Amino acid sequence: MTGTTDGTGTTDVTGTTDGNTRYEPVTTSRTTAVARVVTDVLQPRNVLLAGMLGLGLAAAGHWTGLLWGLLGALCAGLIPAGYIEWERKRGTWGDRHVVDRTQRAPIFLVILGSVGTGSLVMLLGGAPVRILAAMLGLWVMTIGLLAVNTVWKISVDSAVASAVVTLLAAVHSPWWLLAYALTIGVCWSRVALSYHSTAQTVAGAALGASTATALLFV
Q1: 71, 121 in Cβ contact below 8 A?
Q2: 111 CB contacts (<8 Å, ≥6 apart)?
Q3: What is the Cα–Cα distance from 132 to 151, expressed in whole angstroms?
C-alpha cells in the first residue's frame, strides 16, 4: 500500500481490501471530519433505536407499540453495542468498527442470540405481527452477514441502515424510501473513513434491503 501527501491536506493512498486491509481512498481532513460525524450519528445502535421505535408504533397503531419497539432496539442494537464496548475496554479490539473481519464472528453470534431472544419474547407476548416480522428479518440478515463475513468483509452499518429504511417503508409508508439518502450517506462515510470499499457497502445495503423486503409478504 502506498501513499503521498501534496501539502494541502489531501492524502492519496491506494490499496485493496482482502477482509483485513483497510481501503483508503483520496480524502481531505474536512471530508474525514464530516464522514466521522455521519458514521457516528448513523451507527447501527442509533439507527435501530429510532427505527425500531417507529416500527413498533406503526405496527401497533398506538403508543404500546413503542414498548415493543424499545424491546426490539434493545435486542438488535443496544445489547450488541454494549457487548462491543465491553470487549473494546478489555482490549479485544480498538473500537466499535472492528476493522479485522476475522474478529467479527463473536459479535454476530451475540446479535443472533439477542435478536432471537427478543423475537421469542415478542411471540410469547403477542406483539404485533409486523414488528415481530421485522425482528425476524434482522435475524436472517445477521445470518447473511455472518456467512459472507467468513470469506469477505461486508459493511454491517450499511446493511442496518438499508434494512431499517426498507422496514419502515413496508410497515408505515413508502415515503420512507426517501430516507435512503441517509443509507447512501452511511455507505459514503464508511468508504471515506477507509473502513470498507464501495463494493462492501453496496453489498451490505443490498443484503439489508433484500431481507427486509420479505416483510412485504407478511
Answers
A1: yes
A2: 76, 80, 142
A3: 30
Look-up: residue for cell 482490549?
Answer: 91
Query: Grid coordinates in use for 53?
Result: 421505535
pTM recorded for the entire structure: 0.86
pLDDT in tens, 25-67: 545 788 999 999 999 999 999 999 999 999 999 999 999 999 9
Backbone angles phi and psi of 11, in degrees to 5 = -110, 125
Which has the closest alpha carbon to 215: 166, 142, 182?
A: 166
> Contact 9/182 with Cβ under 8 angstroms?
no
The CA-CA-CA angle for residues 155, 176, 179, to 5°, reads 45
4 has which bridge partners?
Answer: 12
DSSP H stretches of helix in the chain: 29-41, 44-60, 64-73, 79-89, 105-125, 129-149, 156-171, 180-192, 198-213
CA angle 176, 182, 184 (to 5 degrees): 115
Local structure of residue 122 (DSSP, 8 states): H
Cell numbers 464501495 correspond to 198
